[in-house]
C-alpha cells in the first residue's frame, strides 16, 4: 500500500514537473473566464432585459439550460482529452527511455507501479473535472441563480467516463508505443462518439438497424453512453424533449450500460496490471 | 561459501534471435564478479534475467536465495542500468529520496544516507539541480548512488563507467573495492578490462550467449606469457619446451608458451642452450586480461 502511494506521489510530481498541471490550470481558468463572460452577457440581454409571457419564460429557461449544458459538454470534451493525454506516455515512454528499469527493480510489485500511476492520474483528473464542471455550476448559479439538477450524479458519470478513458490509455501503454496508444484510445473514443449519434438517429428515425449498430459501438466503448447518461440526468425535462442537440438523449442508456462501463473499466485496469507484470522490460 | 547468484541453463530468445544461449554460473558472497564479452554477447540480457526484468525462455536461477523475480529479495539488491535514464523533472536529491522510499526507507535514516551518497559520488553541489541539466557522467554517478541507497548485499552494475571521465572511473573503482570490503557482492558488466583486472575476484567470458570460460583472477596472476625468438626450431624442440609450460605455439617466426612460475624461465634458457639452440630473444610478461580476452574470443570474433 505504501509503495502505491509512493508511486502515486511520484506521478503527481511528474504531472507538476512536466508542467501539465500548470497548462491545465491556466487554460482551465481562461475557459471559465470566457464562458462566464459569455454567459453573463447572454443572460443580461435575453433574460433580464426582455421579460415576457409565461410561454416565453419557459423558452428562456430552456435556453438557459442549453447554455449550461453546452458548457458542460465542452468541459466533458476537455476532460476526455486530459484523461487520454495525461497518461498516454507514462508507461510507453518510461519503457522506451529506460526510466522504468530502476523502478521495477525495487522491492515493489509491478502491479503497484501501475496502480500508483493510475491513482496519481485519477486524482488529477478528478480535480480537473471538479474545477471545470464546478466552475460552470458556480458561474451559472451566481449569475442566473440557475441550479443544475442532479449535479453530483451527473459529475460522477462524467468522472466515470474520464476514468474509463484514462484506464484504457494506461492499458495501451503497457504494450503500445505512445503514438499508437493515443491513436487507439482516440479511435475508440471516436467509435463511441459516432455510435452514440447513430443510436439517437436510429431511435428518432425508428430504424432498428442503425440503432443496433450504435448500441454495439457503445458496448465496444461505453464512454459516449456515459456522457449521454450524465447529460440526461442533469438537464431539465424541457430540454430533454428537444431533438438532436449534442446532449439530446432520445434513447437513454440503461443501467445495464452503466454496469457494463464499470466492469469495462475494472477489466481494463486488471488487464493493464497483468500485461505490465508479464512483459520484458 | 554462500552463493548470492546461481543460475542453470538460463536462456533468452527474442523472436528468432538467441540473446543468451546458456547462462550457467555462480557468484559467491563477497565476490566481485566480472562479466566480460564482446558487444551483443548477451551480458545485459543475462543481467536483466537475474534481475527479473526479462523472463527467461528456459532455465532457472536463484539470487540471494530467492527465485528470479522475487520482490522481497530486491530489498537487498541494487542496480545501475546500462542506459541510465531517470525522471529528469526531479532534482538529484528528490530522485534519491523517491528511490529510497521505493526501497521502503524513509525519515532521518534515508536523509542521512542520501547526503552520504551525494558526497561519495561527488554531486553535493548539483544535488538541488534538476536531472535535466545533468551531464552524462553526472547522471551515471547519481544512478550509482541510487543503486547503493539500501546498502545492498548484491549490486548489479551494467558498464558503470561508460560515461565517466578518468576521475569518475577511479571513483567507481574505489566504490566497488569498498563494497567488497563491506562484504557486498558485485556483478559487473564491463568492457574496460584494465578496471576489471584491478577490481574483480573472478571473471566469466561470454561469447554468443554462452559462458565459455570462468576463472579466478588470482589464478590468472601466476600465468606468464613467454615469447621466444630462436634459431632452427623443429617439432622436437617444441615438444621439449612443453615440459616448462603449456600452450606452446609457433607463429610468425616466434615461439609462444605460457608458464606458471618465473622459476621456469632460467631452467628453460639453460635447457635451450644445452640443446644447442641460439636464443635471439626471450621475453616474459604477466598476461594481461586483454590478451586473455582476445585469446578466449578468438581473432575472428565480430560484434553481433
Ligand atoms: N528486446 C530485444 N529484442 C530483440 N533482440 C534483443 C533484445 N535485447 C537484446 N537483443 C539482442 O540480444 C543480443 C544480446 O544483447 P545484449 O544487450 O544482452 O548484449 P550485451 O552483451 O549487453 O552487448 P553490449 O556490450 O553492446 O552492451 C544482441 O544481439 C541484441 O541485439
Ligand atoms: Mg550491454
Written account of the structure:
The complex is a heterodimer of chains A (281) and B (304). The two termini of chain A are 23 Å apart. In chain A, 44% of the residues are buried. Chain A has one domain (2-278). Chain A has helices at residues 2-17, 20-48, 54-85, 90-97, 100-104, 110-144, 151-173, 178-204, 208-220, 223-234, 237-240, 255-278. Chain A is mainly alpha-helical. The longest helix of chain A is centred in the middle third of the chain and has 35 residues, at 110-144. Chain A is globular, with a radius of gyration of 21 Å. In chain A, helix 2 packs antiparallel against helix 3 (54-85) and helix 3 packs antiparallel against helix 6. Chain A is built from 12 helices and no strands. The longest helix of chain B has 16 residues, at 166-181. Chain B has 10 helices and 14 strands. In chain B, strand 1 and strand 2 (17-28) form a beta hairpin. Chain B is α/β, with parallel strands linked by helices and 304 residues long. The A-B interface holds A 2-3, 6-7, 9-10, 13-14, 16-18, 97-99, 101-109, 278, 280-281 and B 48, 51-55, 71-75, 77, 79, 81, 83-87, 89-90, 94, 98-99, 101-104, 130, 143, 146. The structure holds adenosine-5'-triphosphate and magnesium ion.
Overall mean pLDDT score of chain A? 89
Q: Kindly estimate the percentage of residues of chain B that lie in beta strands according to DSSP.
A: 25-35%
Question: In what range is the share of β-strand residues of chain A?
Answer: under 5%
Helical proportion of chain B? 25-40%
**Overall form of chain A:** globular
What is the number of E strands of chain B? Answer: 14
Output the radius of gyration of chain A. 21 Å
What is the radius of gyration of chain B computed over CA atoms, rounded to a whole number of angstroms?
Answer: 23 Å
- How do the strands line up in the largest sheet of chain B? 6-7-8-3-9-10
Amino acid at each position: 500500500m505504501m509503495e502505491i502511494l509512493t508511486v502515486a506521489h511520484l506521478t503527481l510530481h511528474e504531472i507538476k514537473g512536466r508542467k501539465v498541471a500548470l497548462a491545465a490550470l491556466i487554460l482551465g481558468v481562461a475557459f471559465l473566464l470566457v464562458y462566464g463572460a459569455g454567459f453573463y452577457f447572454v443572460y443580461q440581454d435575453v433574460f433580464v432585459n426582455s421579460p415576457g409571457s409565461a410561454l416565453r419564460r419557459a423558452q428562456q429557461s430552456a435556453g438557459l439550460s442549453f447554455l449550461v449544458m453546452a458548457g458542460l459538454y465542452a468541459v466533458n470534451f476537455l476532460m476526455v482529452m486530459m484523461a487520454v493525454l495525461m497518461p498516454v506516455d507514462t508507461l510507453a515512454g518510461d519503457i522506451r527511455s529506460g526510466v522504468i528499469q530502476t523502478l521495477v527493480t525495487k522491492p515493489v510489485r509491478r502491479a503497484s507501479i501501475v496502480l500508483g500511476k493510475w491513482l496519481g492520474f485519477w486524482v488529477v483528473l478528478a480535480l480537473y473535472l471538479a474545477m471545470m464542471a464546478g466552475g460552470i455550476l458556480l458561474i451559472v448559479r451566481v449569475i442566473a441563480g440557475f441550479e443544475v439538477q442532479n449535479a453530483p450524479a451527473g459529475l460522477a458519470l462524467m468522472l466515470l467516463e474520464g476514468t474509463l478513458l484514462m484506464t484504457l490509455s494506461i492499458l495501451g501503454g503497457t504494450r503500445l508505443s505512445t503514438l499508437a496508444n493515443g491513436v487507439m484510445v482516440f479511435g475508440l473514443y471516436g467509435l463511441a462518439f459516432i455510435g452514440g449519434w447513430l443510436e439517437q438517429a436510429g431511435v428518432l428515425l425508428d430504424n432498428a438497424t442503425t440503432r443496433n449498430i450504435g448500441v454495439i459501438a457503445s458496448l465496444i466503448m461505453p464512454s459516449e453512453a456515459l456522457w449521454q447518461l450524465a447529460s440526461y440526468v442533469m438537464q431539465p425535462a424541457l430540454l430533454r424533449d428537444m431533438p438532436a442537440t449534442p446532449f439530446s438523449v432520445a434513447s437513454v442508456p440503461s443501467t445495464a450500460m452503466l454496469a457494463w462501463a464499470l466492469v469495462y473499466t475494472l477489466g481494463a485496469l486488471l488487464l493493464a496490471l497483468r500485461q505490465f507484470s508479464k512483459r520484458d522490460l | 561459501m554462500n552463493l548470492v547468484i546461481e543460475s542453470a541453463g538460463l536462456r533468452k530468445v527474442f523472436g528468432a534471435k538467441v540473446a543468451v544461449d546458456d547462462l550457467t554460473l555462480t557468484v559467491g558472497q563477497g565476490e566481485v564478479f566480472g562479466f566480460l564479452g564482446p558487444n551483443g554477447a548477451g551480458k545485459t540480457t543475462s543481467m536483466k534475467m537475474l534481475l527479473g526484468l526479462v523472463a527467461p525462455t528456459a532455465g532457472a536461477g536463484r539470487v540471494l536465495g530467492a527465485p528470479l523475480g522475487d520482490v522481497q529479495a530486491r530489498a537487498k539488491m541494487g542496480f545501475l542500468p546500462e542506459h541510465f535514464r531517470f525522471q529528469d523533472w526531479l532534482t538529484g536529491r528528490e530522485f534519491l529520496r523517491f528511490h529510497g522510499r521505493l526501497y521502503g526507507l524513509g525519515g532521518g535514516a534515508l536523509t542521512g544516507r542520501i547526503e552520504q551518497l551525494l558526497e561519495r559520488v561527488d554531486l553535493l553541489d548539483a544535488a538541488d539541480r534538476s536531472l535535466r541539466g545533468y551531464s552524462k557522467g553526472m547522471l551515471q554517478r547519481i544512478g550509482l548512488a541510487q543503486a547503493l541507497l539500501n546498502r545492498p548485499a548484491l549490486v548489479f552494475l551494467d558498464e558503470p563507467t561508460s560515461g565517466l571521465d578518468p576521475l569518475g572511473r577511479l571513483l567507481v573503482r574505489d566504490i566497488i573495492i569498498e563494497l567488497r570490503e563491506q562484504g557486498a557482492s558485485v556483478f559487473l558488466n564491463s568492457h574496460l578490462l584494465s578496471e576489471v583486472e584491478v577490481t574483480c575476484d573472478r571473471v566469466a567470458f561470454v561469447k554468443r550467449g554462452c559462458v565459455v570460460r570462468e576463472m579466478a583472477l588470482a589464478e590468472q596472476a601466476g600465468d606468464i606469457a613467454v615469447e621466444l625468438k630462436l634459431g632452427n626450431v623443429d617439432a622436437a624442440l617444441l615438444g621439449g619446451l612443453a615440459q616448462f609450460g603449456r600452450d606452446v605455439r609457433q607463429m610468425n617466426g616466434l615461439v609462444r608458451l605460457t608458464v606458471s612460475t618465473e622459476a621456469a624461465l632460467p631452467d628453460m634458457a639453460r635447457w635451450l642452450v644445452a640443446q644447442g639452440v641460439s636464443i635471439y630473444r626471450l621475453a616474459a610478461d604477466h598476461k594481461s586480461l586483454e590478451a586473455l580476452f582476445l585469446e578466449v574470443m578468438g581473432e575472428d570474433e565480430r560484434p553481433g
